[in-house]
Automatic annotation (TrEMBL), chain A:
Coiled coil: none
Cellular-component GO terms for this entry: plasma membrane
Topological category with respect to the lipid bilayer: Multi-pass membrane protein
Annotated InterPro entries: ABC_transporter_permease, MetI-like, MetI-like_sf
Organism expressing this protein natively: Gemmobacter aquaticus
Protein name: ABC transporter permease
Family: Belongs to the binding-protein-dependent transport system permease family.
Stored CDD domains: TM_PBP2
Mitochondrion among keywords: no
Locations listed in the record: Cell membrane
Sorted UniProt keywords: Cell membrane, Membrane, Transmembrane, Transmembrane helix, Transport
Matches recorded under SUPFAM superfamilies: MalF N-terminal region-like (SSF160964), MetI-like (SSF161098)
UniProtKB/TrEMBL annotation, chain B:
Annotated keywords: ATP-binding, Nucleotide-binding, Transport
UniProt xrefs under Gene3D superfamilies: 2.40.50.100, Nucleic acid-binding proteins (2.40.50.140), P-loop containing nucleotide triphosphate hydrolases (3.40.50.300)
Any one cellular-component term (Gene Ontology): ATP-binding cassette (ABC) transporter complex, substrate-binding subunit-containing
Keyword flag RNA-binding: no
UniProt name for this protein: Sugar ABC transporter ATP-binding protein
Length: 301, 362
């Protein structure tokens, strides 16, 4: 009797301190279990030679030294940088689409849905569609090029164009994503502010640049984050469209890691983990930048 | 010179007619207030003057020039918005100077005019702040500063005080009036608050359902309302309306009040019939002094210190408000004899048009 009274008292007294942790717990445990621990494990594995089944053999920085001598690694790194640079085009393209669709005409909801559609369908489907689109003989794009130039280009079989071809496929859904972010931002604009700007003689580009874009800054920030991260972890399209080919010329780090560690080319877990660690470090640079900016913004508020 | 003139101006949104043919002259330097209940079209009319809404038909002239088709930034007008519409990412100085920047003034000129406007509005110490760091009254001043700096011929205000608390509203009301005296510019001011209209205006335009009910000075509207709508809208507390029987009589109009008392109003009416008598609470007497007396029971007493407001139920069930001395001691349930002075009574015909105005300035 007195025991239960005391325990109820303890709960009453510490409720405010315990409650936040209780609410945090499910998410925190998941994050620990599926994110933090695997990161540590990956780093640990990257110092070993391991086929995934047998004994781990400690080789220190051996995997990293090998990586520095691996031509495919440099191809993948270079391709990731190209992805990063060109994928950012999704942001201005998304903005342009959003501005275009931000009007009230009959059936605008349908048009918005159609423009958003590529983001809804699976990346696998996007990859397949573009593969057909580029396909020599019957692909729409190849036919167009043939009609324009007289020669045919097999985009996905050409080392010069293959990465660009995949990025274009990736831009399609990414633009739709950025568009939705901007449409939401445009919805939240204060119409009186636009009118005030009109009275202040700001029109067209100047209105966009001085009044509308600054207010869309939060949307731009989120678009930037998802696009940069999307570019760095590009995997699905490469896997579906080329499997890194031809001759590894469309490799990116994440697909390279998968190929080394988990595919029919072998089960070099240690080597794959080393690639993953490198990719993780590159991502951390951007994620840190984003977080620093977010904290600075919150302080300003 | 910047007089504003509207002739036969209309506005339609699709099939809905919002402004139904407005003719209005606003003289140079005049402070004109558009007042009316919400949905009467007063804001739309202001936005049509600003150029933010197209004019469906009719003509708008500002300073003698036809502005019907001219863009908002070229009409020589500046507007203060209800939400202030400040640019949140710019400092106060940038907000005020933005219009000048967009019209291509050089930096030194912008800085000079911005600081002059800021000084006028006591914003000098806030020029580097962002709007988010300002109080409501300060934001309001920045919005006004943004209008002043462009040196417009006509200022437009769209319910600028409705987001402020009561004390600040009174203060800003005074500041805007002072600004009008200092600048001498034409100002058009939209509000639904008849107190703001009465205190600030040179000329009040009472609007209802897209047309003008009456135009006049505050006292003209108070003493000589043209119809029931204006009589009920202007003045606080609201004018009392009593259903009465009236007939022509030698020396004026004979009116039978609820309860049977008869009062004779000076003025001519053509026919007899059921009409509406208007009497303002401040003109009714709680002590029974007047040309006729209404018997009733006090339902509610509001003691405001300086005055007391009684709501009195009459024998026929209608209720009238009576403004009395602050020391009046009647309580709910007490009998009261309400005095009706004939010279303060308004008489309206069945269509709501005023036949006799109880104009106390005569």
């Amino acid at each position: 009797m007195s025991d239960t009274a005391r325990s109820a008292g303890f709960w009453k007294r510490n409720q405010l301190k315990i409650a936040p942790w209780a609410f945090l717990a499910p998410g925190a445990i998941m994050f620990l279990l599926y994110v933090l621990i695997p990161i540590v494990q990956s780093v640990w594995i990257s110092f070993h030679d391991w086929d995934g089944l047998g004994d781990k053999v400690w080789i220190g920085l051996g995997n990293y030294v090998e990586l520095l001598d691996d031509d495919t690694f440099y191809v993948a790194l270079k391709n990731n940088l190209i992805w990063l640079a060109l994928y950012l085009l999704a942001i201005p393209m998304g903005l342009a689409t959003a501005l275009f669709l931000n009007q009230t005409v009959w059936g605008i909801r349908l048009y918005k849905s159609l423009f958003f559609f590529p983001f809804v369908i699976s990346q696998v489907v996007v990859g397949l569609m573009f593969t057909w689109f580029y396909a020599p003989d019957f692909g729409l794009f190849s036919q167009l090029i043939k009609w324009l130039t007289g020669t045919e280009i097999a985009v996905l079989a050409d080392e010069r164009f293959v990465t660009l071809g995949i990025i274009v496929a990736g831009l399609w859904p990414q633009t739709a994503y950025c568009m939705i972010l901007y449409l939401t931002g445009l919805n939240n604009l204060n119409p009186e502010q636009i009118e005030a700007a009109r009275m202040d003689n700001a029109r067209g580009w100047r209105l966009l640049w001085h009044v509308i874009l600054p207010q869309l800054a939060p949307a731009t920030f989120i678009a930037m984050v998802v696009t940069v991260i999307g570019a760095l972890r590009s995997f699905d399209l490469v896997s579906i469209m080329t499997a890194g080919g031809p001759y590894g010329s469309s490799q990116v780090l994440s697909y390279f890691m998968y190929e080394q560690a988990l595919s029919e080319y072998g089960y070099r877990m240690g080597y794959g983990a080393a690639i993953a660690v490198v990719l993780f470090l590159i991502m951390m640079v951007f994620i840190t930048l984003f977080i620093v900016r977010m904290i600075a913004q919150e302080r300003n508020r | 010179m910047a007089e504003v003139s509207l002739s036969k101006v209309t506005k339609e949104f699709g099939a809905v007619s919002v402004i139904k043919g407005i003719d209005l002259q606003i003289a140079d330097g005049e402070f004109c207030v558009f007042v009316g209940p919400s949905g009467c079209g007063k804001s739309t009319l202001l936005r049509m003057v600003a150029g933010l809404e197209e004019i469906s038909s009719g003509a708008l002239r500002i300073g003698g020039r036809d502005m019907t088709q001219v863009g908002p930034s070229d009409r020589g007008v500046a507007m203060v918005f209800q939400s202030y519409a400040l640019y949140p990412h710019m400092t106060v100085a940038e907000n005020i100077g933005f219009g000048l920047r967009m019209t291509g003034h050089d930096k030194a000129e912008i800085a000079k005019r911005t600081s002059a406007a800021a000084k006028m509005l006591q914003l000098d110490h806030l020029l580097d702040r962002k709007p988010g760091q300002l109080s409501g009254g300060q934001r309001q001043r920045v919005a006004i500063g943004r209008a002043i700096v462009r040196n417009p011929d006509v200022f437009l205000f769209d319910e600028p005080l409705s987001n402020l608390d009561a004390a600040l509203r009174v203060q800003m009301r005074g500041e805007i009036s002072r600004l009008h005296q200092d600048l001498g510019a034409t100002m058009i001011y939209v509000t639904h608050d008849q107190v703001e209209a009465m205190t600030m205006a040179d000329k009040i335009v009472v609007l209802s359902a897209g047309h003008i009910e009456q135009v006049g000075s505050p006292l003209e509207l108070y003493h000589r309302p043209r119809n029931l709508f204006v009589a009920g809208f202007i003045g606080s507390p609201k004018m009392n309306f009593l259903t009465v029987e009236a007939r022509p009589a030698p020396g004026g109009a004979e009116v039978t009040l609820p309860g049977g008392a008869v009062v004779t109003l000076a003025g001519q009416i053509a026919v007899a019939g059921q009409m509406t008598l208007g009497l303002r609470p401040e003109h009714a007497s709680a002590t029974g002094v007047g040309d006729a007396v209404l018997e009733g029971t006090v339902k509610l007493a509001e003691h405001l210190g300086s005055e007391t407001l009684f709501f009195v139920a009459l024998s026929d069930g209608s209720e009238i408000a009576v403004k009395a001395d602050g020391l009046a001691s009647e309580r709910p349930g007490d009998r009261m004899r309400v005095g009706v002075p004939a010279r303060a009574c308004h008489l309206f015909d069945a269509a709501g048009q005023a036949l006799i105005n109880g104009d106390l300035t005569r």
